[in-house]
Amino acid sequence: MVSRGLGLFLLCGLLGLVAAAHDADNWPQFRGAGGDGHADEQNPPLQWSESENIVWKTPIHDAGWSSPVIWGRQIWLTTARPDGRELFAVCLDRATGKILHDVKVFAVAQPEAISGANTYASPTPLIEAGRVFVHFGTYGTACLDTQTGAVLWRRDDIHCDHHVGPGSSLASAGNLLVFHMDGTDEQYVIALDKATGKTVWKTPRSADFTGLHPQIRKAFSTPAVAVVGDHEELVCTGGFAVMGYEARTGRELWKARFVGWSTAVRPVCGQGLAFIGTDCERPQLWAVRLGGQGDVTDTRVVWKLTRHMPATVSPLLADGLLYVITDQGQASCIAAATGNVVWEQKLPGTYGASPVLVAGGILFCGRNGGTTVVAPGREYKQIAVNTLDGTIMASPAVADNALFIRTKTDLYRIGKR
Question: Which residues form the domain of 337?
Answer without folding.
Answer: 26-415
